[in-house]
Structures are given as C-alpha cells and as structure tokens.
Amino acid sequence: MSKYSIGIDFGTESARAILVRVENGEEVATSVYTYRDGVIDEFLPGTDIKLEPDWALQNPADYIEALKETIPELLNKSGVREEDIIGIGIDFTSCTMLPIDKEGTPLCMLDEYRDNPHSWVKLWKHHAAQPEADRINEVARERKEDFLSRYGGKYSSEWFFSKALQILNEAPKIYQAADRLIEGADWIVLQLTGKERRNSCTAGYKALWDPERGFPSKDFFRALDPRFENVVDEKMSKDIYFLGEKAGGLTTRMACLTRLKRGTPVAVGNVDAHVSVPAATVTGPGKMVMIMGTSICHMMVDKELRLIPGICGVVKEGILPGYYGYEAGQSAVGDIFAWFVKNCVPGEYFEEANKRNIDIHRVLEERASHLKVGESGLLALDWWNGNRSVLVDADLSGLLLGATLETKPEEIYRALIEATAFGTYKIINTFEENGVKIRELYACGGLPERNKLLMQIYADVTGREIRIAASSQTPALGSAMFGAVAAGKENGGYDNIIEAAKKMAHLKEERFIPNEKNHLLYQKIYAEYERLHDYFGRGENEVMKKLKEIKKASKE
Amino acid sequence: MSKYSIGIDFGTESARAILVRVENGEEVATSVYTYRDGVIDEFLPGTDIKLEPDWALQNPADYIEALKETIPELLNKSGVREEDIIGIGIDFTSCTMLPIDKEGTPLCMLDEYRDNPHSWVKLWKHHAAQPEADRINEVARERKEDFLSRYGGKYSSEWFFSKALQILNEAPKIYQAADRLIEGADWIVLQLTGKERRNSCTAGYKALWDPERGFPSKDFFRALDPRFENVVDEKMSKDIYFLGEKAGGLTTRMACLTRLKRGTPVAVGNVDAHVSVPAATVTGPGKMVMIMGTSICHMMVDKELRLIPGICGVVKEGILPGYYGYEAGQSAVGDIFAWFVKNCVPGEYFEEANKRNIDIHRVLEERASHLKVGESGLLALDWWNGNRSVLVDADLSGLLLGATLETKPEEIYRALIEATAFGTYKIINTFEENGVKIRELYACGGLPERNKLLMQIYADVTGREIRIAASSQTPALGSAMFGAVAAGKENGGYDNIIEAAKKMAHLKEERFIPNEKNHLLYQKIYAEYERLHDYFGRGENEVMKKLKEIKKASKE
C-alpha cells in the first residue's frame, strides 16, 4: 500500500499544494488556492484606509482558507485515503511576519486592532522598514557586531527585526499588544499543531540567529531602542527547531478543517527557496541550486563556514542538516524580461505571437536564438531592481550599452538575458574566490521550463552544465519531502531529508551543456561586464545614485 | 513690379524648389520632385549589378528631371512671368560627387561606363571609402600636414578625396576616363550656365582647399598614390568662386528646359546646411544655427580663425563673406527618435495615436512633457550612430543608464531627447572653451517645427534662447537669397547676402526661453553626462569599440 505526503507552498499570490507518493515522489494531485486579498498594497481590505508607499501586506485568513480548500481537493482528486497521508510539510515566503495574541490569533483578526495596518501580515516585499534597516546596520557597524559578516555585510529592510522595529516605531500599541511576532511559516505550523516550533531557516537567515551564538545580545537591541531590548524574550522564542524535525501532530480542529487524520505529523516550517534544494536532488556541496523566476535565489551548502562578501546569508543547518547553507540572489531576472515585454516591444511582435498563438517571450526567444554570441554588440548591467548579490545595493539601476540605429528588440532581449547570466556568473565567481567550489548548476522555478535559450546562455556564460528539477512545483515537493521526514521511516517515511531526496526528487533528462566556443567568447564580454560592474557598482562612478537622488528631489 | 528669385535644394530623396518675392522673402510657390531612382544602395538601376555594403549612389538624370519639373511648376502655380525671375540659386547635399567627361556628361550616362558603379554619383552617405579616408589621415599625420587641424583632426570617408581615391583604387579606368571629378552642386551650376564655377564651400569643407593656402601639395597627393599626384590639376580646378558670386547666365538649352529666360543669373552653388545660415537670419558671430533633422549640423561664423578640436571644419568664407565659417555636427538626432519609435514603443501607444489621429511622436512628447527634469532617473549617451563632434568617432555606440522596473517608454524617449541636447551643449561648450562665443541659438529643419518639447529641452539644457527660422524650406530660401545676390542690386536683387538676409530671412515669433530652474538641474545631470562622455569617449574604457570588434568577428 503506497503512502503519501502533502506539501504546501505559501507564495505571494497563491498557495500551491501537492500530494506526493512517498516511495518515488510521484505527484499524484495538485491544488492551487489564489488568495482572496492577494498582496495588499493600496487599502486595507474592506476599508478606505490607505497604505503608505512601499507597504505590502497579506491577510492571514487567506492562509487558513488555502489549507481548507486545497487539502480536501487533493484528497478528492487523488482518491487517496486520509490514513495513507503520513505527513505534511509547508514552506512560506520569507521574511513574512505578523503579530499574534496569546491564543495565536493574528491581531488583524481582532476588531480592536484590524484598522491599524501594523496588525496585519507584513509580506516579504514590504519595503517600508528601510529606516529601521538603516538603523540596524548603523548600530551593528558601530558596535562592530560580528554577525553582519554572515549576511554579506548588510541587514535587509525585508528582514525580521527591520519589520519588528517598524511596528515598535510606528505602532507601539500594536507592538505592546502582540504576545508574539512570528514568521508566517511558523504561524501555520502553530495553527496546524498547536505548537510554536520556530524553524532554524527563517531564524537564521532573517532574524540573525545562529545555532552556536543564538540571537544578538540584549545590548545590541537596547542600542537600537531601549524598548526593543527584550524583543527576543518578550515577542519571540529561543527554542529553534531544525529543518527535518517533526513540529507535532495535526490538531483535532485542523483535522476537521482539512479532512486529514488527527495527529498526522507536521514538519517544522521552511522557506520556499531553501526547501527547493533537496527537491532539486541536491544534498551536498559543489552544486548550486538556482530558483529562477521573477528573481533568482542561489542556494549552496558547504561543510565549511566561509564569509562571502555580498551574499544574503550563511546559516548553519539553514538548508540541510550537517552543512552551512548559503543564500545569494539577483533581485530581478524574470521581472526584467517582463518589464521589457511590457514597455519596449513593438506591436508587430505581439501580432506575430497572436497569429501563431504563442507567447510573446517565445517570439523574442526564437529571434534572439538566431543571434550569435556578441553579434548584437550590446552589453547590459542587470540592475533594474538594484543589485542584491554581490553588491547589496538597491540604489543601482539598469544599464544598456552598445545600441545603434540597427539594434533590434530581440537583440536587447538577448542582451538582458545575458546580463542576468553575467550576474549569476559574478555570484558563482565570488563563491569560488572565497573557497566554495561550484561544479554544477541545478535550476528550478518557472523560467527554466519556459525559456531554453536562457538556460543555454546560462550554461555558456558560466561554463557549467545545468540540470533542471523534474518537478514544476519544487518548493511544494520539498515540503512534501520534509513531511515524509517528519513522519519518519517507522511510519513509511524517511529518516532524513537526504534519504527522502534520493527517492522523491528527480531531474529532467534534458541537460544544458556549455558550448566551449561560446563560453570563451562570453569570457571576453564578461570581462567588460565585470569592469562596468565594478566601475558603477563599487563607488568609482556614483552616477546611478546621483540620478536617484535627483529623481527623489524632483518628486518633492 | 515685384521681382522674384528661385532656390532649389537638392536633397537625399528629393529636390525642393521655391519661388520667392525678392523684396520680402515671401514664399510664393513651392514644388517638390522626388527622385525616381532615389538613393541607389542595392542594384544599379535597371540592372542586376549589386552594390557592396556601405555604397550609396544617385542618378544625375534625376537632378535634371528635377529642374525640368519644378521650375515650370513654380511658374505655373505662381503665375509669375519669366522676366520677373531675376536669379536662381541652388544648394546640394555634400560631398556628393561624380565623374564627368569633357562635355560635362556624367560617365554613368555613357553606355561604355554605365555598368561600372564608380561611374555614378557618389552620394554624401556613401561610406565605402573608409580605407581611403584612413589612408589620407595616416599620410597627413605622418607628413604633419597642418590642414588636418582645420577639420577637427580627421578627414572623413564622406569627403571628396576619399571618394576620388576610391575611384582610382577600384576603377582606374573610370578615373582615367573622367575629364573632371566634380561636386553635384558645381555640376548643376555647370549644367545651368555652361561654366565650371566650383564653389568655396564644398572646396573648403570637403576638399581641403583654403583661400590662402589653396589645395594640399602635390607631394601629399603623391604620397597617397603616385597616380593621384596631379588629381587637382587633372581632375579638378584651382579656380574657386566665393559664395554670393554669380556663376553665369542660364544657357539657351536650360532656358528651354526650365521655361526661364536665357541669361537669368545663376549663383555659385552651395551646401544645404551652409546656405541655411543666412536664411535663418544669421549674418554674424555669436549665433549658432542648428539644422535639425535626422542629424544636426551646427553652423557658426567668427572673425577669427580658431582651431577647435572635434569640429567638422573651419573654412574662410565658407559660409558668409568676411568670416571664418565653422561646422560641427551630431550624426544622429531625429534618427534616434525614429529608431526608438520603430523598435521600442508598445502597440498601445500607437493605438492611442491612431485613435486621436495624431503622430506617435506627439503621444510620446505629450507624455514626456509631464515629466519633471530628472524625474525619470535616466541618462543616455546619444551615440546611436557614433559621435561626429567633438569626439569624431564612428565606433562609439548608444548608452542608456538608470532604468528600473518602473521605467516607461516616454521616460526613455525624453532621456534620448535630453541626450541629444547634452550632445549639442558639449559642442557649444567646446566652441566657447576655444574662444568662439555663442550667445543665441537659431534652429531650422524638420524637428523644431514638430517637437516643441525638444526645443524647450534644448533651451533649458544649453541655457540659451532659441529662435526658429520662419521658413520651413530654409535651404531653398537661402539658395533663392543667393540667387537674388547673383542678380545684383541693379537688377532688383541685392549687393550681398547680408542685405538679402535683412529683407528676405525671417524668424517665427515663438521663442524658447530657458527656464532657469531647469537649467540648473540640467547642469547637474550634464555633469554626469560629461563624465560618461569622457569615460567612454576618450579612451578610459574602450568597451564600445571592443564590443564592435566582437560583433564584427561574429559575422565572419
């Protein structure tokens, strides 16, 4: 009798759930729930309370609704019986956090607080806590806190303490009223199991926690704000659970809601990018996993701790047991191509796409694929949304160089793809220069399935073979794998994620093998990329920042 | 009884003729003749003889046809009698040159030679003589010829001796067979009057002639090629006539063809950009005339000879009597906006243009005009077709910097306009730094009439008031003015071009006054433009050239 596990990936616009056969990872059923309130960035739902710029909230009711809708649908679609579901795993965007009361109820669900935007879930891309992030960086540098070096030298406005401090600064009553500030991943696990089981991944990557050193000192938090001194003790928890551990069993209430068996094992929560690593078959060093979509997350594990400048973070046990987990990233990839298609592509290209009933990206890809390396004479810097790694600078901007009166849209399209490949290559080289070797690349996410040219360009630019994860739902598969690990071998699951990956994770047959001739040509062009990268990115010419200052001033 | 003169502007695709009242410059009638063979850049007309890349020819029969069609039409339309036409002037693109026999017949009109492309008219934008231009520059530099300094340090592939030397190199028989090599302007005058009256403008700007020093030495030409030693004596003429002189009277044959009176005075030929200066009312120093279309020509006169790096040329009496005439230029302006509209503007903008029945440029201009200075955060280098002044480098290419995921097409459009304005400002500043003061700007050509935003941006960037020539046919008006000067005061015309300009040239009422606040903001952005200009344009980072080399190699 086959056993099954369920993985749910809580994304930005929707939650995607899959039901997977434990013995071989076969995806038996899929269910998607699109959040009713989606990304809240204009008005609080059902009110005329307007949000400030850079705000991005979610409604936690959407998460519960997702559980209620998707899990029964998985059972219905597959015909699998509830007793054959041996485990559940979930992953979440991060840092996505919320204030809750003693009972675990989000403050935004209480009449008393719901009109205050700070009572809602702050989504990962809520960018309004930049002043707090600046303060954290300033104080950390002043105090010579050594944790900054594990985060590429900079704490982000997206992360936990920036958002927590913003609540304290702007809504002290909400801060006061919150019994807990908690990551979305951990809140769902709390809902499912009734237990607060904070995971090592978000704690490590977003909240400065380290298994050996714990959280930063009270002195540090006091230096940020005296009221913030005891944030960890008062609003969080020092009990951190490692990935692969069982958080608990499904509560009676949640069993009713989801139609699963009470007590079904639930794994400790995880983050979408991190959970994708074993789902892409990677369980050891030397292999970089790229989660490729609107942006790219670059994930690596290594036995050694290396402080690599400009990465997002390195966390012990942050991705896989027994390894240091490294995360780096590019803040816009698919987003750049989407911008280009929306703003820079003539109508005749869309007409062709319509006529042939194919996507506009296919039209551009097809035309771009006829170009030889270097034929366009174009070179771009992929900084349309700043640079996350390795410059860690949101104020950088995009550059296109080499245009002539003969330049065609498909040439620009290809130059933009190449620019993002150069950006990834720069990250790879930075890892290697700092002692972390990368032999192969593993890709998952939406882009690799949609754009073969892009994958070939990445292989040619980086000079490395690229394999593609077989699942098109890599995070949900990874969560299901952790669900099977939470169940344990004795219940038909696995002892650890390595074993689960051996059986449940697969690759497509397709390989992207670097073309040596193209790689050599790209080396030449990359040398020019790197020179511009350093010229504009490392302070030699601050024109991008100056233009942003002028832009800001023009709006005042 | 009013007197009239006729001006004909021989352009790239057509000839534009106007009939003008001499006393006040009123344009009484207009006639346009579109050349049947247009620009010949693929096959010789009526043959399958294919041209090499970068070739651009014309058929001289088109010029004669233009005379035959337009002049009678002017008479018909206006009802003016032939005896009231006191003079004719013509201007031409340049350097546009052709080989002719002893009778003045173009070699391409003779069966013996017509299958050889070198027997045809080489149009100004025939760029296939680059190897010859390189040779001229190399030899001139080796021999330390001082004339190069009058041409911004570089002789162009478009100019007379490059083209002549190409004929010698590639078609020695044509070179041999040619009794004369002659500019199109001078050939038309020869046709009209039966007299070879080479003009000082094309001789000076395109053929290295100087009223005091004459042509370069025989030694120089011999160093280029021993067969080229006597090119001036054998194929040209040392008799050069100044602008404003009368070339002769209309021949009987031409009188029949045009229905004008035999003996009607014909002015010495001129060049489109140069003839526009007095037609834009400018007859002295301090005022720069910009002929604004696909590219911009910047024309100045000054009492002193200044050697200004990177201009196209300075020629004594090259524009107006008694002055040194300066020419500089930008190789692409309107061409960049046309490229942008063709390659980078989404269909919805065209839909709006269609719906409102306005030009697509109006839609972009309207949207761009709502942007404040600096609001887009974009900055461009206007080098889509290289840089003519002041870098004199065809291998430079376009750059756009500052793009974000929010960047809109109208923002890029405005940034491109601003980039061309910065390019003009750089030219103005280079003139001023070398002692030629520029107080005001005068614009003519297609762009000023069509794009008010562009004109205001030029005023704001340069901090100078801009006036617009009243005539939309400035070159033809200028030619008609020179026609009236050729007639002389005694025949109802004028003694000189200054007097003609006082009466016949006018400005529109409209003035573009620089906005001081915008000018100050633009100064900041221009400082960034200038830094990038020097960084990419003066050898610090040769990335544009390297990319062009890679591009070239990719096609081999």
Automatic annotation (TrEMBL), chains A, B:
Domain Carbohydrate kinase FGGY N-terminal: start-end pairs: 4-275
One Pfam family recorded for the sequence: FGGY_C
Pathway(s) per entry: Carbohydrate degradation; L-arabinose degradation via L-ribulose; D-xylulose 5-phosphate from L-arabinose (bacterial route): step 2/3
GO cellular component terms attached to this protein's record: cytoplasm
All copies of domain Carbohydrate kinase FGGY C-terminal, residue ranges: 289-487
Enzyme Commission number(s) of this protein: 2.7.1.16
An MF annotation (GO) of this entry: D-ribulokinase activity
Alphabetized UniProt keyword annotations: Arabinose catabolism, ATP-binding, Carbohydrate metabolism, Kinase, Nucleotide-binding, Transferase
Reactions accelerated catalytically: D-ribulose + ATP = D-ribulose 5-phosphate + ADP + H(+); L-ribulose + ATP = L-ribulose 5-phosphate + ADP + H(+)
A single BP term in Gene Ontology: L-arabinose catabolic process to D-xylulose 5-phosphate
Family (UniProt): Belongs to the ribulokinase family.
HAMAP family per record: Ribulokinase
Name assigned to this protein: Ribulokinase
